[in-house]
Design a protein that fits this description.
The structure holds 3 protein chains of 3 kinds. Chain A contains 11 helices and no strands. Chain A is mainly α. The longest helix of chain C has 39 residues, at 78-116. The chains are: A mainly alpha, B alpha/beta, C mainly alpha.
Chain lengths: 314, 364, 362
Amino acid sequence: MTTAVARGTIRAPQRPGDRIFSTATVVSGGLILAVLASVAAFLLVQSLPAFVAKPEDFTGGYTNFWSYVWPLAFGTLWSAFLALLIAVPLAIGIALFISHYAPRKLSQGLGYIVDLLAAVPSVVFGLWGIGVLAPLLQPFYATLVAWFGWIPLFAGPVSGTGRTILTVAIVLAVMVLPIITALCREIFLQTPVLYEEASLALGATRWEMIAMAVLPFGRSGIISASMLGLGRALGETMAVAMVLSPSSQVVFQLLTSQNPTTIAANIALNFPEAHGTGVNILLATGLVLFVITLAVNMVARLIINRRKAFSGAN
Amino acid sequence: MNFTRFGRPAVIAVVAALALSSCASNESATPASTEGAASALTGTLTGAGSSAQGSAQEAWIAAFQTANPDVTVNYDPSGSGAGRETFIGGGSDFAGSDSYLKDEELAGTFAACAPGSSAVDLPVYISPIAVIFNVEGVKDLNLDSDTLAKIFKGEITTWNDPAIAALNPKATLPATAITAVHRSDDSGTTKNFTDYLFQTAPDVWTDAPADPFPLQSGEGAKGTSGVVDAVTNGVGTIGYADASKAGDLGVAKIKVGDKFVGYTADAAAAVVADSPLVEGRDKSDLAIKINRLTTDPTHYPLVLVSYAVVCTEYADAAQGELVKAYVSYMAGSDGQSVAASAGGAAPLSTELADKVSAVLATIK
Amino acid sequence: MSTTTMAAPMTNSLTAGKLPKHSGLAVLLGSWLVTAAVFFVVQLSGASESFNIAGTLFFGTVLYCVAIYLLSYFVEGVRKAKDRLVTALVTAAFVVALLPLISLVATTVINGLPAFLTPTFFTASQRNVVGAGGGALHAVMGTLLITGVATLISVPIGLLTAIYLTEYGRGRLSRAITFFVDVMTGIPSIVAGLFAFALFSLLFNDPGIRFGFGGAIALSVLMIPVVVRSSEEMLKLVPNELREAAYALGVPKWLTILKVVLPTSLAGIVTGIMISIARVIGETAPLLIISGFTASMNYDLFNERMMTLPVFVYTQYANQGADTQAYLDRAWAGALTLVLIVMLLNALARIIAKLFSPKLGR
C-alpha cells in the first residue's frame, strides 16, 4: 500500500496563483529576517566599543561592562518573572471565564472590556502607577514589612512612596494581562466542540472537561501567549522608568526603596544625557536584553515542540 | 476577508483625508500680517537639549512665532547630552544645555558651523533648585548643607534626628523614617545639587558632582515631575526639583552664611550675577562658575544655569540670522520676563544680559 | 420488597447530594457578612481607624472558596467540590482583573474629561499656546497617520509570514524565521527607535533627521513579531480536516488558504492585529527619537517632525509650565483620546470579523 503511493506520487499541477502566493509568503518571511539582521547588525556594531570601554566611561563606579550589566539583567528577569507569576494564572482564569463560564451574551462584551486594557498606553500606566497604585499600596507594604519582615523577601526598611519592584510587577502584570488573555481566549474557543461534548457526555464536571479537553488542547497556545506577554514585560520602557525607584544592585527584597532596575528602563533613563561611549554601553545592554529574550524563547519553544501533536496544522 | 487587511487602514486614510481638508483653528494657512512692522524672517529653526528649559522654550517659541509668523521654531526637550550631541553632529541649529561644552567637545568641530569657527555657551535660563519635603505636621524646615548631605547620604534616617531638631527648635518633628528622593535619570539638576553639597559640605559629601546621582541609597524618580509626584504621594519624603514645580509642597530654607534663605528669583539671579566666568575659555564664551560658597544672605546658591549653545559663525548665513534673532529674544528683557512667568525662571542680571547681547552681535 | 426500596433515600453516586440551586450565592453573601462582622469587631476594639471594605471583600471571598469547597465536598463529593472551587477561582480572577481596569479607566476619564471637553481640543494644535488652551489635533493626526502606515506595512508582511510558517514552511528557513521572530519580540521599543534613526540618518545623510515615516518603520519593527506570533497561533488551530477537504475537492493551495484557512481563523487574526496595534499606538520612546516633537500641525509623513499622542502625553507631563494643572489636564485628555481611538478601532475590527467569519458551531 505504502510502496504503491510512493511509486505513483501524483504531482499536483503548478498553478501561477500558487506560485505567486507562496513566493509572496517566502519574500515577507525573508524580509523579516533582513530587518532583524539589520537591527542585530546595528546593535552589534554599536555595542562593540562597550565591551572594551575603560572604567571611567561607566557611571556609578563600575569597572567593566559585565559588572555594569549584571544587576540590570537580574532586575529585568526578576521583574518580568514576578509579573508573569501574577499575570499568567489570572489570564488563564479570565480567559476560561470568558470562554466557558460567562453567559454567551455577556462573554463578547467582557472580552471587549479586557481588550481595552491593551489600549492603554504605557505612559498612562506610568502616571497611574505613581499617582494611584503606589500610594494605595504603601500602607499595605508597611503592614507587610511590620508583620512579615522576617521573611527575606519582605525585609525592610519599607519604601516611603510604595514605588517598589512589587508595584512595578503589578503594573507590568496589568499591562501583559490583556495580551495573554486575548490569545488564550481565542485558543480556548477553538477547542473542538466534539471533545468538549464527549467529555461532558461521559459525565465529567465542567472543570474536568476543561482540564481534560480545553487545557491540553491550548497548552502550546498558552505558552506562546505567555511568551508574547513576557516579551512586553521584558522590554517595557516608560512605565518601569516612571514607576520604579531604581538602584543598580542585585537584591531580592520586594518592598524597599532600592530595587534592581531593568535594562529597558535604564536605557530610557540614561539615554538623553548619554554621549560618546556611554551611548555604546547603553546599546550593548540592549543587546544583552536581546540575548535574554532569545534564551527565554528557546526554552519556551522546546516546551511547545514536545506537545506538537495537538497542533491542527500538523 | 481581504477587506480586513486593507479595510482598517482604508478607514484611517479616509479619516485622514477628511482631516486634511481642515486645518487647526489656531494655525492660519496664510499668516495674517496685521502689523506693519511684521518681520522679514522666514524659515524653520531647530533646537534640542535641556528639558529644564522645556517650559521656557515653549513660551519663547510661542512669543517669537507670534512676532515672526513665517518662522517655525521646534525645540526637542530630549536632554542636555543628547542636545549637545545633536548640535555637534549638525542635527540642530542650537542646543539647550544645563552644563557648558566640555573642553574635548570644544576641541572638535561643529557640523552646523562654518569651517574654522567654533561654538559658544550663552547663559539664557537661571532656575533656583528647591529642596521640597512632605512631612506631616511640618510646614517650615531649616537645613544646613551638612545635614542635607547626610540626609541624602542616608546617614540621617528619621525626621526627629537631633541634627535636624537642632536647626528647627520650633518645629514638632515626627519619628517618621526619611525617604530621600533623587533623580533616577541623568540630569543637570542633580549635577548642580551635588555640586552644591560637594562644595559646601566637603566633609560629608565626597562624591564629585555628576549628572547621575552617585549613591545607591535613597529613592529614585524619573524627571522633575517624577520627583515631585514621589514626594507628594509619599510619607516623610524629601527631594530636590526646579523651584517652579514645587507647587504646594513644603520648601526647606538652606543656610547661607548665618541665615536661612528660601529661594527667590532675585536671590538666584543675585548669586549668578556675583559668580565669575569659567577661566581658560574663549572670551566670547560665557560659561559661569557658580559661587556656591557665598555667605551673603541675599544669595541663593542652589541654582541651575542653562545655556544656549550656538555657533560663532554659521555655515548657512540665513540660519545664523534666525538663531541670532531668536537667542537675542531669549536673553533680552522680554524673553526673560516671559520665561519668568511661564517657567518660573530667575531673570539674567542686566550686566550678564549685556554681555550675552555683545557676543550675539558678533555671530554670523 | 419494592415499596421498601422506594422509601429508602437514594444513595447512589449519580443522583445523591446536590446543593440547592442558589446555595453558592447564599454562601458568598454569608462569607462576606461573617468577615464584615469580624472587621466590625476589630474596628470597635480600636485596632483600626476605619471599616476595612477591601479587607472584607478579600477575606470574605477567600472564606467563600473554602466554605463552598467543604460544603460541596461533604454533600456532593470531591469531583463536584473541585468544580465549584474552580468556578469560584475563575470568577474571582476575572473580578480581580477588572479592578485595575476600572481604576485605570476611571482615573483617565476623571482627569481627562476637563480638557477633553474644551472646544479647542480637537480643532487646535499647541502652536503658540502657553499655559491653558490649545488642543491635540496635531497629535491625533500624527498618531493616526503613523500607526496607519505602520499597520499597512506590518499586517501584510506579518500575515504572509505566518501563512508561510504554518502552510508552506519546512526545514531550515522556517525554523530560522520562527526563531528570529521570537527574538524580535524582545527588541526594547527604544532600540527600535534608535535603529530607525540610525538607518534614516545614514540613508539621507542628515544627523538630525526627524519624520513621521521613520516612526512608522520603528513601530513596524515592534509590530511585525506580534502579528506573526498571534496569526501563526490562530492559523495552526484550523483543523487539518478542512484543508484536506478542500484539497480533495481540487481547490488549489493558495485558494484553500485564502478561502478556507483565513476565514476560519479570521476572528483570532483580527484580535491579534488589534493587540498589535494597541501594543504600538501607545509607544512613546521610539517616536520621541525618530518622529520628534512639535507643537504645530504636519500632514507630511516624509518631511519634518510629526507629533503623536503618546509623545504629547509624555511631554505635557514631563515639561509642565507654570500653570501645572493645564498641562496635566491635557496629558490625561490625550491619554483618554488614545484609549478612545483604540476602542473605536477595536469595535470596527469586531464588526468586520463578525461579518466575514464563517458561521461555526459557536
